[in-house]
Amino acid sequence: MAEEIRERWTSRTTFLFAAIGSAIGLGNLWRFPYLAYDNGGGAFLVAWIIGLLILGIPWLLMEIGMGRMFQKGAPGVFSGIGKKWEWLGWWPVLVAFLIVSYYAVIIAWSMRFVLSSATMAWGTGQEAATKTGGFFFENILQISSSAGELGSIVWPTLIMLAIVWIVLFLIMYKGAGVIGKIAVYTVSIPWLILVALLIRGLTLPGAADGLNYYLSPDWSALLTGDIWFAAFSQIAFTLSVGMAGMYAYGSFIARRGDVNNNVLIAGFANNATSFFAGFAVFSTLGFLMTALSAPAGEVAESGLGLAFVIYPAAISMMPTANALTGILFFLCLFFLGLDSAFFLAHGGVSAPLRDKFGGGLAKVTAIVCVTGFLVGAIFTTQGGLYWLDMFDRAAAFYGLLITGAISCIVIGWFWDPALLRNHVNETSDVKIGAWWDWIIKIVLPVGLIFVLVYGGFMQDIPKAYGGYEIGILNGSHVVWIILLVTLVASFVLQKIKTRG
User: Fold this and answer.
1) CATH number of the domain encompassing residue 78
2) pLDDT for 278 beyond 50
3) Structural domain of residue 137, as residue ranges?
């Protein structure tokens, strides 16, 4: 079989936007601002920047650089190090597939809220603001009483999920050349929306109070483990490393293309977006605190609660432009999620599959999209939120951290990271020194293991994750089972004979 021509970015700009877009996701808007508020404000920024410098950028450089050096996705990279390590490339591929399967459902919820915002379906005024939780859980999710009760499919969400996957297919089926061009818009549009949301937030009473809560420093927090866990975990999750896709994105760079400069730009652009998003979010939360005469602790929340309960409550209380603000906010979520979704589906899953098994771009993309839709359907059921939470814990926490730590150990100790350092230095004005080798060998795996143990095993081994009970199993059991199944599947994929 003739070797297929490798996909290429059409320019450095398209790669940068694709890399930045893959890193900038929902967590920049709904996770970072709360972490800063809850972990020492301005003090958190210090730990967060340190995390970017000693964990995020070295890890991102390793994945993109290895992809360019071997001109393969994650499994091909580790197979190049040694055939026995190929499974280590497939494990994050499976992690990426699980993440995008439920991530697309969250994008579908955002689309439903765009439509709901047009008519302010959850209502306006103080009474409506106190009932946005009911609107999300009862009207949108139609949530069941427990994880053991899946219930029926919520059809509006399933329809929106199908639309999300159709959009993803249309973006991905022609490969990196089109993806990079689309990324220019899907990165720029949410930035423009964030600017509009910030301007809107700053015009509201109480905005200054919200910003004070966001950034007021508590320097004593730097002496606690919590702030370092929060900072390191945010860096690990936000840059989209540990999800296989960055190896593939690196492989689409021409052999003489720059890696070091691009990694620095992408890393700092991601953090700048998080920091800026915090102003947009907390200026609005400050208004909600003032309007409801509520303390910060009652309105500052992270994750789904901030996006689909707290922020809609603030929109309800706004004196004007409620519908427009809601549409803009949820469109921002949609575009932020879309970038990360096509990164996961294409770079994380489709590219590695094509590397090993062949097949045309459109065909493999269609298979990934249909399979992702079918797996994601479970999260559109009435009990889907519980299962989404458990899959997220297994894939986006344990899977990402474990595979990331093992990858650093293998590259650092069973290969020679100096080979990669010399490779990327050849084509960049920014030179990486020998210190980088020791970050990969020691600092990065130790940092990831710290996050894994401090925020994972210490929580989920003594008690059931999420308090979920599903027959004889609990939430932690389900998480371990998901991890075990993906690990076994990784070895199975390694054993399958390569095309040719």
Assistant:
1) 1.20.1740
2) yes
3) 12-495
